[in-house]
Amino acid sequence: MATMETLDVTKIEPRLKHPTIFKHFDALNPGESFVIENDHDPKPLYYELLAERGNIFTWEYLEKGPEWYIVQIAKNPAEEAKTNEPKETIDVTAIEPKFKHPTIFKHFDALNPGESFIIDNDHDPKPLYYELLAERGNIFTWEYLEQGPERFKVLISKNPSEIKKENGSIPEKDLKKAEFLKEKGVKFGCSDSGSKYPENTNYDEWELDELADYIVDKHHQYIKDNAESLNGLAIKVSEHHGTDHPELHRVATQTHHFLQDLLDHIANEEEVLFPVIKQGLAKKRKSDEKVTYEIGTLDHPIRILTKDHEIAGEDLNFLRRITNNFTPPKNACNSFSYLYSKLKEFEEDLHTHIRLENDYLFPKALKQDEELANA
Q1: What are phi and psi of 294, to 5 degrees?
Q2: Which long-range CB contacts under 8 A does 78-86 form with residues at least 24 apart?
Q3: Where are the alpha helices (DSSP H) in the chain?
Q4: 298 vs 295: CA distance, rounded Å
Q5: Local confidence pLDDT in tens for the 375 residues of the chain
Q6: How far is the C-alpha of 125 from the C-alpha of 116, rounded, in Å?
Q7: When you count CB atoms within 10 A of the terminal residue's CB, does the N or C end of the chain come out lower?
Q8: Which sequence spans correspond to the domains of the chain?
Q9: Coiled coil located at which positions (predicted)?
Q10: Which among 229, 274, 276 has a CA at the least distance from the CA of 256?
Q11: How far apart are CA 237 and CA 47, in angstroms?
């Protein structure tokens, strides 16, 4: 039985670590593997290998800290390494209108580099093309397989690396148009006439349960949908470009802690505060309703959550400072630019999220709590 080669990564000069590992991986025949040993978790290498080579390998921890991390990396057998076949076909007509674009985005984000899927629709889904371009950047190809008049089928593929093939690149005019539409606030998605929320944006007129649910559905869900991929992207870009741009190491570290704190924060809101607010509303509507909290005490948890908002704002301000206001350097690669655009997008959504809570939800909840205490 052949012995697998083992690389002690700690003995390799830092700037040569990943190139050396890539060289060993590329020399593997399908089905072969090797082992790397390191003194810290080499997970950034996983993201880089996935971005540069696609889903053609397996990654298995043989030992996972705290002192040593040992990973077996294997190149998939040839018959398992094919990523060109579409993963699935999505019949968009069968999806509720308000969920059409979010569902397609979810499928796209789940693709590994080099993978694809097909959407099948009863009209030209070109608005989706511009939304995908505005939100994800030039990291995909869009190919019509059938173009009307009754059915439109499109093959959507995630680019296998940062280097685009000339025949698969997105036209510059489309990139500019997508960014222009986004800046102007154009809604790309299908109409959502069945929304459960009030049409007016005077949030003072919304009921507390409507406001809480809206924050969870729109802003909490945005964090949940984007946190993991944003953290992974920050690590990947740091590993790729940290030597020339050392601030990226700080960006990756700060992003990780910022996102973890934010996930803990929204969990506290969903599991503790928001249910209590709804209990208070139910009691206000019907006095004999039972509550599981001490009426008149909401000011304490709300002060804590408001402080969390201040800390999140400071974290974002720090990220802005070290990224030159989320401005990538000239000739930055797609992943570098995409990271900064996602951080900026994350900031914009969080500012709206925090405003809804600080200016509307929290004051209304405190007023309700005071009224119940005085009843």
Answers
A1: -85, 110
A2: 78/30, 78/31, 81/30, 81/56, 83/54, 83/55, 83/56, 83/112, 83/114, 83/115, 83/160, 84/114, 84/116, 85/116, 86/116, 86/117, 86/118, 86/155
A3: 17-26, 43-53, 100-109, 126-136, 172-183, 208-214, 221-241, 247-268, 274-285, 299-322, 334-356, 362-374
A4: 7
A5: 356 789 999 999 888 888 899 999 988 888 899 999 998 888 878 877 776 777 788 888 888 888 899 999 999 876 444 445 666 888 988 888 777 888 898 888 888 888 889 999 888 888 888 888 878 877 888 888 887 777 888 889 888 754 444 334 555 666 665 665 556 554 555 444 345 788 788 999 999 999 999 999 999 998 988 888 888 889 988 988 888 999 999 999 999 999 999 999 999 999 999 999 999 999 999 999 998 889 999 999 999 999 999 999 999 999 999 999 999 998 888 888 889 999 999 999 999 999 999 999 999 999 999 999 998
A6: 17
A7: N
A8: 6-77, 89-183, 203-374
A9: none
A10: 229
A11: 9
Structure tokens at 224: 């949940």
Q: How far is Cα 72 from Cα 59, in angstroms, rounded to an integer?
A: 6
Q: Which amino acid is at 78?
A: A
Reduce the DSSP state of residue 288 to 3 states and report it.
Answer: coil
Fold identical between 6-77 and 89-183?
Answer: yes
Q: Whats the size of the chain, residue-wise? A: 375
CATH annotation of 89-183: 3.30.110
